[in-house]
């Protein structure tokens, strides 16, 4: 039985255990039909031309993990930003871990989607937001059909959340192969501020296939900083589908650090639904061996007087592959837009591959849109300069990598997170240059 | 200290250096002058180990050791320093962090531990004062957005920190106004001792008013065609290079 058939047939059993209202149930029924008709995307589709899921799909995944595997805090401590000073929503093999989490309902909701889907008091929010901006394509619909657990974050108007919120999905490897589909719903109220860190982390080398969907709503004047850390094991594959809806005067920044994993696909979509929105999409990708990362971004300028900034930096070693497919759509009404897109790549070895494909669809006539893609090698003059100061070749290359990634790193606003990412990068390139940048 | 014999070097199969002979001893200052394209910067790059240039003939020895097979960083560890004509911008790496890394990498190569932080700070302060470098400057990203003068001053600051035996100053005077030139020259003079040597590569005699050379060499078309004392520099300033070219014909 193929994974598709297995999923479709499991839906019946899944559905019969649901306790939620008919509104969501209807959405699910529709979603599973979409998936049943279309299945997993293949390289015949333009948007998936460079990313084949074939090798992932042939594994026999467990879809409903048995759950509650004990994980000791000391074993996973390294994956948290701080012991204390963050809210934490932690899932182990897709199941909520109250032991590792630190949630709240005090002035804001940082809790579970399962609770929000089932409890009447959240009904209005669910009806207003759930599945409202998630795409109705096949892979997102698959998540919608099975969406059961994930983070539910609701920040009320004018609330400045004083500590970052961490969403961490651990997989233990208790199943030989596991498929998880986290679903996050985040509503940031008018003039509210929040910082969120999302991480998927397997604790063993067993295969994991994650198909995650996050819907993020930024209301008027909301300010959101969202960081994605993708540094998983070599048998962990991730399809991350993130949808950001911005109302007027809101500011949303998503930084994606892709430093590991097997196949990673990021579908990051921004919709600007009001004037004076500011959107930032940045990423640093450092890959080696046969790793594969596909960044598929969309910024849809629906309203006038907005800005978007995209800056993706990639460093590719060995036989790794990187894709940057950045699409900017400017509607006819969206005049006076500034849309910038930058994608720079360095191939460290001859066998690494990068495919860069900027797409601009502009229907307004008074806009500023720019895009630039570069694919190159290390600057020989810069390397010589550093080496002539007594710094070894490897260390010099590392410094150049930092310098290259700096435009992305410098806008990470949580100092401890920046320090951790620097450390991850240093580990990744196997160099200790003796200081934090 | 430095002995160059019949040095030929090329880039992309184009011969640039065509038989250089030069000997520099400890305590000496040598100036190498010449028109554009004569090979001055190539000579400094080859001594420092730039792999873009291929040495096709001849030898370069430093303290009686052949250095042509050594990597640039190994030459730096032996005490060779090149002040770049066009220093490279390294965003996100501060001047301080960069120089710390350079010093500690050099110490590591010599089997020493990292320099203690307090000692490093003290040294940075002393050398920055010597070159009248503002403390804020040190926390800026290396060469990023620096003016021409700031870049050159920063090069000399690095030289002061690394305390090389042989410093090659490649067109350090270009892009400097007279005040900055004096500060840089003053720094070089203070760092000069009987145990180290300096090669000044320049177009103009101007810098040599402040860093007074013991020997002046004229490089034309990949060869040193004339050597003399500092008076030769004055003569070049006055008459240009054409008279030498004519002499050669």
SSE string of chain A, helix = H, strand = E? HHHHEEEHHHEEEEEEEEEEEEEEEEEHHH
Largest sheet of chain B: 6 strands, mixed
Please give the alpha-carbon distance between the first and last residues of chain A: 50 Å
User: Runs of chain A with pLDDT <50, length 5+?
Assistant: none
Largest interface: A-B, 29 and 37 residues
Q: Please give the radius of gyration of chain B in angstroms.
A: 18 Å
What secondary-structure arrangement, pairings included, does this model have?
The complex is a heterodimer of chains A (437) and B (249).
Chain A: H1 3-16, H2 22-38, H3 54-57, H4 73-76, E1 87-92, E2 95-96, E3 109-112, H5 113-118, H6 123-129, H7 138-146, E4 151-155, E5 165-171, E6 177-180, E7 183-188, E8 193-202, E9 207-218, E10 223-230, E11 236-246, E12 251-258, E13 263-272, E14 278-287, E15 292-301, E16 307-316, E17 321-330, E18 338-347, E19 353-362, E20 368-376, H8 380-387, H9 393-409, H10 415-428
Parallel strand pairs in A: 1-5, 4-7, 5-8, 6-9, 7-9, 8-10, 9-11, 10-12, 11-13, 12-14, 13-15, 14-16, 15-17, 16-18, 17-19, 18-20
Antiparallel strand pairs in A: 1-2, 3-4
Chain B: E1 2-11, E2 14-24, E3 29-33, H1 40-48, E4 54-62, E5 65-66, H2 72-78, E6 80-83, E7 90-94, H3 95-109, H4 117-130, H5 135-138, E8 141-142, H6 148-162, E9 166-170, H7 178-191, E10 197-202, E11 215-220, E12 223-228, H8 230-239, H9 242-248
Parallel strand pairs in B: 3-10, 3-11, 6-9, 9-10
Antiparallel strand pairs in B: 1-2, 1-4, 4-5, 7-8, 11-12
Overview of the molecule:
The complex is a heterodimer of chains A (437) and B (249). By secondary structure, chain A is of the alpha/beta class. Chain A is built from 10 helices and 20 strands. Chain A has a domain of 271 residues. Chain B is globular and about 60 Å long. In chain B, the strands form 3 sheets. Chain B has a 6-stranded mixed beta sheet with strand order 6-9-10-3-11-12, sandwiched between helices. Chain B has a 4-stranded antiparallel beta sheet with strand order 2-1-4-5, covered by helices on one side. Chain B is 38% helix and 29% strand. Chain B is an alpha/beta fold. Chain B is built from 9 helices and 12 strands. At the A-B interface, helix 8 and helix 9 of A face helix 2, strand 7 and helix 3 of B.
